[in-house]
Each structure stands twice: as structure tokens, then as C-alpha cells.
């Protein structure tokens, strides 16, 4: 009998070593309702279900952009003794102090999508927004001739993601299309603002040839604006960012001409993987670039296969 | 502020003037019109809309702001919020509030789209069930407020959270596919487009060809953006105005709002009418969701975020008192139009995003300020406010050169701070943070800022003094000082033009007009009083 117990204990020990050490990873997302964020969150959940030893605790802020509630859940997770945290910061520098405190206390923190300014993290998993937006600007310029008027629908200009996408777009677009006038429609990642703004600007400037958007919610708002004003697909070109499903459908219908997709699901997946690895004390790369995919009518089939659409 | 005080000037118009002769009779008539205009609740909002529109027209380049297709676009985009705000007006008139309208609008939009897309509901049935659900939510809110005496603020604050959560939860916060054509008839459908299509295809009966030709020729400028949204918005307000003046509901919401106890003693079923007000408000939110879907790309549960605040702002700008009992439907419509005008105009003016936020807030303050001036029956106070407004305009004129001084000062300060920090870090072999290093300027740049500032000194000091003198005049409104100020505003305007400060001229002109107006206030009030 005694030997049996010992054998079981030994077996348990062996199996425990053989499979990875079980870790509890907290994942703090920025939004549970935005289409792009739902893909990132899906990737994060996938990482946990692929690797049975990761227990994932997902929490989100009360509404998108609410820093104080994000800080609160962050501190709660640290206090509960979580092994590692993957966070998509609402504000790059706003979370810095909390992140620094957690890292100092031995809880590794991985930043997903948006970086942390003012504190070190174990790893930063994201697409380089500015680099992708530069590609977007370059591609957009190729769709029109230099001197044509265009509209740019911004994201929230008080957040680094919005600022980087805008700066990247201007850098990429201005190089070869320096004579084009860019009319700005400011938004706070709200497709209704995009729709109303594009309608207003198009009314006053019927010679606009293209609408470039900082995210695909804006692309869909701009498309609704074009439909409201009686334009047909292709009359005014649309360029998107994110590669969201509805924008790809609109591309197949002839509305959208280019979309710089982030590998969103991959971002969430790699973020959780990196956090789990850091919790186990393994080496993780300080910067994991999840890359981009330029979706055009030619490459849309390939992209759809890639994201399982 | 009681209703009687607010309408203090109204009896003047109602009692009729003296049967004067000739010139004075015309004057009296004109004056009565002025009095009648200013005694209407919506006059402040109307003035603000007109001022705002003129301002946008002056500052936007390119195609004029006042072309029909742009105005119609503003109406189209105002439709959904306009109907939400109409419901809010009724609730606020009963001295209540409904903070849940934005969430309810989002939930209704999401659920209607959801059952139409995934449950195989006929679109018409989906719309009906959405509106019915809205009414049920209103019944719940109203019952909790009127029957159980819970504060409206708390009940609807809970609703704000509950209905948003329910909307997200029941639809998974996912966007639906594109909705059925039927929804277009509540939004982007253009009633003239079938006529034009038939004309283009030459299938129109001969008798109607002239009409088709007319529509086609006016298409781009007038009819392209004429959509059902606009039709619904105005039809809804006209119906509601008729309802308000011809039914007990319309009468009783005012009575309940100004004196609830008295209304109860007078035999009004206060509970019933309060519940009805909440049901109507929620009905409006659900109906607005249908109008919104008519123009949106898909249905989604995050529609209507913060709409409760826009709706309340529109109601208050429209002259309705947050304490209930006083206000009008038409003022709310003007308030909604003002908010949409601000959005549209500031986008067209391509103003920096962060400035747009500040300017939006200032315009709301000005609109409500106008309403307070309008209500005041003390001529001295009105005169003070007009002069204060002129002082604010002088300050706006000061901002253009003044901001150059300030930004030059800030650049120099930040540069010197960065330099001394750099010196302090050197012994420790540390470097400046890249963001601090960005604050370091080249000598040429510093000089350029200094040159800019030097040029701005004279106008900045001049307009600054003008603003200070105008503030003094608010408290010492002697005719000499005010007339002196008027001369100074005029001279400032003339001096600004050669200095390349043409943009400040409109401010000073408007200030001049306000100062002149302030001198007319006393006599005007005396005349109005003597008309009794």
C-alpha cells in the first residue's frame, strides 16, 4: 500500500515537471466591445486554451479609455498574487507607476498593443502603429494622383495610438503626395463622429477623391456617409486600418481599396504566451513585432484564409 | 426662477399698446415684437444659432456653409438626437431627468438589428418590438420614480448602466450585417430619388416630365441630401407641439414641474402623468434608434454613448429650466441644431481637435448666458451683461497677439529649464529624457519666437487695456466711459487691419454693437413699461 502511494506521488511529481509549470496570467484589455479589440481578446483566450497550464483571468475597463478603472483592476490583480500580467494600457504613461511597482515586486508585466512610457516591461507585443500607418499613407497616395483632395479620419488625438497612426499616415502620404490637401475629421474612435464629419466635409468639398481612416470603425462610418450622400462604391476611395471583418466585406463590394491589417489575434496570442513565459522565469524578447498585412482586393482572399473568415 | 418672473415681459405684449398715432405707433409695434421675441423661451437659442452660423460662414473657406445640401445634412444628422431630446424635454419639464436615454437608444438599436438579422424577424416587426420594449423600459423608470418615490437621477443613472450592459450582453457587442432596405425609409431614403430615377429612365408619364426635369436640375444643390431623417425630425416636432398645446399631458407636465404639490391638490393625477412623461421619453429614445439605424452602417450596442449629456445640453440651451415647469419644445429643437451646427462647422473650419472641445464648451456657455440675459427684467443687470460680453470679445481680440507673447514666453522658459537641467545632469553622466530634449531650441528658433513676440507687444497691450477698460465699465457704466470705449473699439478695429490682425476685426465690431446696445437698454425697458 505504502509503495503504491509513493508511486502515485512520484508519478504526480514527474507529470508535474513534464508539463509546463501552471501559471495564472491576468489579461487587462482596453475594450470588450470594439471589433478590433474583440479579435485581440480572442487571440488571448486562444493562447490559454492551447496551453492547458495557463489560467487566464480577463478583465476590462468599464468603458473604453477609462484609466482609473484600469489602474484599479491592475492593482487588484497584483494584490491577489497573480503570476504575470498582460495589459493593453489605456494611457501609455498613466499606468507607468503601477507597472513599475508590479515589476519591482516580481510580477512580470507584458504590454499589448500600446506601450508603456516611463517604466520597463518584460515585453512589448504590438504592431508598430507608426510604421504600419506609414505604409498605409504610401499605399493611399498610390491610389490617387498628387494634388487630389483627401479626407483623413483620425483616432483619439489624446492617445498615443491615435497620434502615431496620424504621424505615420502624414509621413507616408506626404512623401509622394505633397500637393494634396488633407482635410481632417477628428474623432475619439467613434464611428458616428466619422460619419457626420465625412458627410459635412464631402458636402463642402465634392472634389474629395479618397477617405483614409485611422481605424476600421471610421472606415465603416465613412462608407455610411458616402451611402447617405448617394455615392456608389468606388466613387470615393476608402482606405482602412485594422483589417476588421466588416471592412473586408466592404472591400469585396468595391468600397474599400486598401486596408493595413494588424495581426490582431496574433497580438493577443503572443502577448499571453510572453506573459506566461516571463512568469516561468524564461527569457522573453523585449519587443515582439506582430507585423502587418496589406489587404487589397488582390490579397483579400489570402487574408481571409489567414484570419479564418 | 419662477414662470411668472421669466415671462415678466409677456403681459406687455399681451395687453396691447396705446392707440398711438403715426410714427410712435409703428415704434410701439416694433417694440412689441421685440418684447414678444425675447419673452419666448427659444429666443436665446435662436440668437445663438444665428450668431454661430454667421461665425462659421465668416471663418470657413471654400464652398459657403449656407448651401442647402449642407444645411440638410445637419438636419439629417440631428434627427436621432433631436427626437431623444424631445422626450428629455418632457421629463425635464416635470422637474425630472432621464440619464438612460443614450444607453436605451443603443440597446434598442442593437436588439432591433439583432432580431432582424439573426432571428428572422420581419423588419417591420423588429421595429415595432424595439419601440414596444422602449415603452416598457419607460414604464419601469416612471413607476419607480412616481410610484415608489425614488429619485429620477438615481433610477435613470442605474438605467444608464443596466441598459448599456444588457445591450452589449444580448448581442455580444457585435455589429450586425447590413440591415434590411426598410430601415432606409427611416433615414437615408430620398423621397425624390424614385422620381429622378424614373425621369432618367424616361419611364415617367408625360404629364410629370416637367416635375422630373425640375427635380433633376435642382438635384445637386437642393435635393441630393433631402432625406427621410429630416422629414421625420420636423414632422415629429410639429406633431409634438400640437400634442403639447392640445392635450392634458402637455398642460400637466408644466403644472407638475412648477408646483407638484399644488397640482396634486388641484386634482391632477400626478403619478400617472409623471409615468407617462418617462414612457414618452423612453419611446423617443427607442424611436430615435430606428432613425439612427436608417443612416448607420450596421446595428451595434455602442451607439448613443454620451447622448444623455448632449440631449440635456440641447434642452437647457433651448431655454428649458432644469428645475422644471418652464421651457418649450421648439427651444430644444434649436438647441439640438446648435450642437450639430457646432460639430459640422468646427469640422469644416478644420480647427485643431483640442480647440474644438474648448470652443464647443464656450458656445454652450454663451447660449445659456444669452438666455439668462433674456430673462432678466432689471435693465441695469442686462446692461452690465452686454458690456461684460463686449469685454469678453475684447479679450478674444487680445488672444491673437497675446498668444504669441505667451507661446514665446513658454518656449523660452522651457528651453532655459531644459538647459539648466542638462547642466545639472552632466556631472552625474546622465542625459535628458528625449521628451525634455525636444524642448531645447536652436538659437534661430528662439530668435524667431522673440521677433514674433516683439511684433505682438503693441496690439497685445492695446487690446489687453481695452478688455480691462471694458471690465471696469461693467461696474462703472457711466455714459462717458461707454462712449469712450465705443470709440476705442472702433479705433482698435481700424488699427488692427494694417497690422495683419484682420481676424480680430469681427470681434471688435460685435463688441461695438453690444456697447451701443447696452446704452439702448434703459430707454427700451422704460418704453416697454410705458406701453402697458
| Beta-strand fraction estimate of chain B | under 5%
Backbone structural class of chain B:
mainly alpha
Low-confidence stretches of chain A: 7-19
> What overall geometry of chain B do the principal axes of the alpha carbons give?
globular
Question: Any guess at the CATH architecture of the largest domain in chain A?
Answer: 3-Layer(aba) Sandwich
* Chain pair with largest interface: A-B, 35 and 39 residues
CATH top-level class of the largest domain in chain A:
Alpha Beta
Largest sheet of chain B: none
CATH superfamily of the largest domain in chain A: Response regulator
What is the tally of helical segments of chain B? 23
- Write down the secondary-structure element order of chain B: HHHHHHHHHHHHHHHHHHHHHHH
Query: Which spans of chain B of ≥5 residues are poorly predicted at pLDDT below 50?
Result: 1-20
Write the CATH architecture name of the largest domain in chain B.
Orthogonal Bundle
CATH class of the largest domain in chain B: Mainly Alpha
Please give a handful of descriptors for the protein shown.
heterodimer, A: 309 residues, alpha/beta, Rossmann fold, 2 domains, six-stranded parallel sheet, 12 strands, B: mainly alpha, ABC transporter involved in vitamin B12 uptake, BtuC
Provide an overview of this structure.
With 309 residues, chain A is an alpha/beta fold. Chain A folds into two domains: 22-127 and 264-290, 3-Layer(aba) Sandwich (Rossmann fold), CATH 3.40.50; 129-261, Response regulator (Rossmann fold), CATH 3.40.50.2300. Helix content of chain A is 47%, strand content 19%. Chain A has helices spanning 2-18, 35-50, 67-79, 96-104, 129-143, 160-176, 191-204, 216-228, 245-252, 264-279, 300-307, and strands spanning 23-28, 54-59, 84-87, 109-112, 123-126, 149-153, 182-185, 208-213, 237-242, 256-262, 287-289, 292-295. In chain A, the strands form two sheets. Chain A has a six-stranded parallel sheet, with helices on both faces. A six-stranded mixed sheet of chain A has the order 7-6-8-9-10-12, sandwiched between helices. Chain A is elongated and about 60 Å long. Chain A starts with a helix and ends with a helix. The longest helix of chain B is centred in the last third of the chain and has 47 residues, at 379-425. In chain B, helix 17 runs antiparallel to helix 18 (353-375) and helix 22 packs antiparallel against helix 23. Chain B has 532 residues and is mostly helical. Residues 1-20 of chain B have low confidence and may be disordered. Chain B has four domains: 1-39; 40-190 and 225-377, ABC transporter involved in vitamin B12 uptake, BtuC; 191-224, no CATH class; 380-530, no CATH class. Chain B starts with a helix and ends with a helix. The interface between A and B is large, with 35 and 39 residues.
Amino acid at each position: 500500500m505504502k509503495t503504491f502511494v509513493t508511486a502515485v506521488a512520484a508519478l504526480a511529481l514527474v507529470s508535474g515537471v513534464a508539463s509546463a509549470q501552471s501559471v495564472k496570467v491576468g489579461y487587462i484589455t482596453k475594450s470588450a466591445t470594439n471589433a478590433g479589440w474583440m479579435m485581440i481578446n480572442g487571440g488571448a483566450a486562444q493562447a490559454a486554451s492551447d496551453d492547458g497550464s495557463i489560467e487566464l483571468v480577463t478583465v476590462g475597463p468599464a468603458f473604453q479609455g477609462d484609466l482609473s478603472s484600469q489602474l484599479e483592476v491592475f492593482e487588484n490583480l497584483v494584490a491577489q498574487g497573480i503570476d504575470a500580467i498582460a495589459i493593453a494600457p489605456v494611457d501609455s504613461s498613466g499606468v507607468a507607476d503601477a507597472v513599475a511597482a508590479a515589476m519591482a515586486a516580481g510580477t512580470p508585466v507584458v504590454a499589448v498593443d500600446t506601450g508603456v512610457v516611463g517604466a520597463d516591461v518584460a515585453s512589448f507585443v504590438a504592431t508598430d502603429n507608426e510604421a504600419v500607418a506609414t505604409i498605409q499613407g504610401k499605399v493611399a497616395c498610390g491610389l490617387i494622383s498628387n494634388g487630389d483632395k483627401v479626407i483623413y479620419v483620425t483616432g483619439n488625438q489624446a492617445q498615443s495610438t491615435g497620434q502615431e497612426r496620424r504621424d505615420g499616415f502624414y509621413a507616408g502620404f506626404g512623401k509622394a503626395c505633397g500637393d494634396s490637401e488633407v482635410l481632417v475629421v477628428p474623432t475619439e474612435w467613434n464611428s458616428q463622429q466619422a460619419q457626420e464629419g465625412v458627410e459635412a466635409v464631402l458636402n463642402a468639398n465634392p472634389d474629395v477623391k479618397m477617405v483614409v481612416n485611422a481605424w476600421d470603425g471610421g472606415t465603416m462610418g465613412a462608407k455610411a456617409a458616402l451611402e447617405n450622400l448617394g455615392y456608389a462604391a468606388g466613387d470615393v476611395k476608402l482606405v482602412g486600418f485594422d483589417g476588421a471583418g466588416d471592412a473586408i466585406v466592404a472591400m469585396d463590394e468595391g468600397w474599400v481599396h486598401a486596408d493595413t491589417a494588424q495581426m490582431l489575434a496574433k497580438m493577443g496570442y503572443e502577448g499571453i504566451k510572453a506573459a506566461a513565459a516571463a512568469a516561468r522565469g524564461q527569457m522573453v524578447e523585449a519587443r515582439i513585432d506582430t507585423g502587418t498585412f496589406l489587404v487589397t482586393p488582390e490579397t483579400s482572399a489570402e487574408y481571409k484564409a489567414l484570419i479564418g473568415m | 426662477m419662477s414662470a411668472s418672473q421669466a415671462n415678466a415681459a409677456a403681459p406687455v405684449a399681451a395687453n396691447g399698446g396705446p392707440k398711438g398715432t403715426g410714427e410712435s405707433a409703428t415704434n410701439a409695434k416694433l417694440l412689441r415684437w421685440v418684447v414678444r421675441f425675447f419673452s419666448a423661451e427659444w429666443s436665446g437659442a435662436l440668437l445663438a444659432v444665428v450668431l454661430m452660423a454667421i461665425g462659421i460662414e465668416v471663418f470657413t473657406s471654400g464652398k459657403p456653409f449656407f448651401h442647402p445640401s449642407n444645411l440638410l445634412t445637419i438636419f439629417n444628422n440631428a434627427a436621432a438626437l433631436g427626437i431623444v431630446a424631445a422626450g428629455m424635454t418632457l421629463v425635464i419639464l416635470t422637474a425630472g431627468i432621464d440619464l438612460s436615454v443614450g444607453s436605451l437608444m443603443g440597446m434598442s438599436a442593437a436588439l432591433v438589428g439583432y432580431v432582424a438579422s439573426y432571428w428572422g424577424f420581419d423588419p417591420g416587426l423588429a421595429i415595432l418590438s424595439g419601440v414596444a420594449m422602449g415603452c416598457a423600459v419607460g414604464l419601469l423608470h416612471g413607476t419607480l420614480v412616481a410610484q415608489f418615490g425614488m429619485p429620477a437621477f438615481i433610477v435613470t443613472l442605474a438605467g444608464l448602466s443596466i441598459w448599456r450592459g444588457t445591450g452589449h450582453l444580448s448581442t455580444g457587442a457585435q455589429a450586425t450585417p447590413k440591415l434590411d432596405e426598410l430601415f432606409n425609409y427611416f433615414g437615408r431614403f430620398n423621397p425624390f430619388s424614385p422620381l429622378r430615377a424614373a425621369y432618367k429612365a424616361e419611364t415617367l408619364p408625360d404629364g410629370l416630365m416637367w416635375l422630373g426635369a425640375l427635380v433633376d436640375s435642382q438635384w445637386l444643390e437642393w435635393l441630393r441630401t433631402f432625406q427621410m431623417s429630416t422629414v421625420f425630425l420636423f414632422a415629429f416636432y410639429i406633431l409634438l407641439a400640437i400634442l403639447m398645446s392640445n392635450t392634458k399631458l402637455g398642460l400637466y407636465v408644466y403644472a407638475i414641474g412648477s408646483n407638484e404639490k399644488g397640482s396634486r391638490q388641484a386634482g391632477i393625477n400626478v403619478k400617472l402623468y409623471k409615468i407617462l412623461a418617462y414612457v414618452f421619453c423612453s419611446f423617443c429614445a427607442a424611436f430615435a434608434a430606428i432613425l439612427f439605424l436608417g443612416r448607420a452602417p450596421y446595428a451595434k450596442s455602442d451607439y448613443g454613448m454620451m447622448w444623455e449629456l448632449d440631449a440635456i445640453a440641447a434642452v437647457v440651451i433651448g431655454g428649458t429650466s432644469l428645475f422644471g415647469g418652464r421651457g418649450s419644445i421648439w427651444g430644444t429643437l434649436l438647441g439640438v441644431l446648435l450642437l450639430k451646427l457646432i460639430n459640422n462647422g468646427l469640422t469644416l473650419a478644420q480647427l485643431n481637435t483640442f480647440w474644438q472641445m474648448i470652443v464647443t464648451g464656450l458656445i454652450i456657455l454663451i447660449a445659456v448666458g444669452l438666455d439668462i440675459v433674456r430673462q432678466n427684467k432689471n435693465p441695469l443687470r442686462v446692461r452690465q451683461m452686454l458690456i461684460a460680453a463686449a469685454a469678453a470679445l475684447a479679450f478674444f481680440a487680445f488672444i491673437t497677439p497675446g498668444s504669441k507673447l505667451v507661446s514665446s514666453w513658454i518656449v523660452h522658459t522651457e528651453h532655459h529649464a531644459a538647459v539648466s537641467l542638462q547642466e545639472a545632469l552632466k556631472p552625474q553622466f546622465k542625459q535628458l529624457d528625449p521628451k525634455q530634449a525636444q524642448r531645447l531650441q536652436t538659437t534661430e528658433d528662439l530668435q524667431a519666437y522673440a521677433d514674433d513676440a516683439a511684433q505682438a507687444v503693441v496690439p497685445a497691450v492695446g487690446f489687453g487695456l481695452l478688455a480691462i477698460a471694458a471690465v471696469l465699465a461693467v461696474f462703472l457704466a457711466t455714459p462717458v466711459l461707454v462712449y469712450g470705449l465705443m470709440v476705442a473699439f472702433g479705433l482698435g478695429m481700424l488699427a488692427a487691419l494694417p497690422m495683419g490682425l484682420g481676424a480680430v476685426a469681427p470681434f471688435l465690431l460685435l463688441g461695438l454693437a453690444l456697447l451701443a446696445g447696452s446704452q439702448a437698454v434703459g430707454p427700451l425697458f422704460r418704453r416697454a413699461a410705458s406701453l402697458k
